Amino acid sequence: MQKVKAWLDRHVERLISRKFLAWGTATVLVYNNMLTSEDWVAVTLVYIGSQALVDAAIEWRHGSNNYDN
Predict the structure, then answer these.
(1) For position 27, what pLDDT does the model report?
(2) Per the domain annotation, does 35 fall within a domain?
(3) Domain membership of residue 41 as a residue range
(4) pLDDT digits over 20-45, tens only?
(5) How many CA atoms lie within 13 A of 67 on its CB side?
(6) CA torsion 54→30→37→46, rounded to 10°?
(7) How confident is the model at residue 40, as a pLDDT?
(8) How far does CA 3 lie from the centroid of its chain?
(9) In the 3-class helix/strand/coil scheme, how is the chain assigned residue by residue?
(10) Residue 41, domain member (yes or no)
(11) Please, what is the average pLDDT of the chain?
């Protein structure tokens, strides 16, 4: 079981970030009326804010690189 979990963790991290997975789960829960829209907004703000913080830290640490090319 531990090997399966390690394999899944490694591949899930490659395909999708955990923050995005949490946001997607919140979106599905809102769609199914299991989460309020106010809670979804809070999850979205945390997702956007934390991603912006990560991006700023990467740019500060490694300088302004153009990763799109």
Answers:
(1) 92
(2) yes
(3) 18-69
(4) 888 889 999 999 999 999 999 998 88
(5) 6
(6) -10
(7) 92
(8) 24
(9) CHHHHHHHHHHHHHHCCHHHHHHHHHHHHHHCCCCCHHHHHHHHHHHHHHHHHHHHHHHHHHCCCCCCC
(10) yes
(11) 80
